[in-house]
Amino acid sequence: MCLVESLQELRELLNTPIDISSGYRCKKHNVDVGGSVSSTHTFGMAADIKADKSIFTMKRLAQKVPEFKTGGIGLYRWGLHLDVRKGVARWYGI
Predict the structure, then answer these.
(1) CB burial string 1-17: b at 16+ within 10 A, e below
(2) What gap in Å lies between CA 42 and CA 29, rounded to an integer?
(3) Are 58 and 7 within 8 A, CB to CB?
(4) What is the full DSSP assignment across the chain?
(5) Measured between alpha carbons, how far is 88 from 73 in angstroms, rounded to an integer?
(6) How far is CA 47 from CA 50, 80, in A?
(7) In what order do the strands lie in the sheet with 18-22?
(8) Model pLDDT for residues 14-54, shown as the tens digit of each residue
(9) Across-strand partners of 14?
(10) Of 12, 25, 29, 69, which residue is most buried, by most CB within 10 angstroms?
């Protein structure tokens, strides 16, 4: 499953719309917004999302989506960073 399909699966689990504030980023834009040099956004493998749920509920449900369970989940005050990298990564930016 790809990133978009995984986001749709999460939307269905949340039972509410999700807002994508950032998806694919070209390298210049990624630098401009302070993204890491190896950001999964620059490979089209990540999205930053918000929804009408707590970030803890969103994280719990995101971990039920196979690609996010085995990929990246970052919690922030504004929402979640989700990616479909190879390998589990978890972090808290809050």
Answers:
(1) eebeebbebbeebbeee
(2) 9
(3) no
(4) --HHHHHHHHHHHHTS-EEEEE----HHHHHHTT--TT-GGGGT-EEEEEESS-HHHHHHHHTTSHHHHTSEEEEETTEEEEE--SS-EEEE--
(5) 8
(6) 10, 8
(7) 18-22, 46-51, 79-83, 72-76, 89-92
(8) 999 999 999 999 999 999 999 999 999 999 999 999 999 99
(9) none
(10) 25
Using the structure block, give the residue that is written with the tokens 């719309």: 17
Token digits of residue 94: 């809050």
Q: Which two tokens stand for residue 80?
A: 């979640």
- Amino acid at residue number 36: S
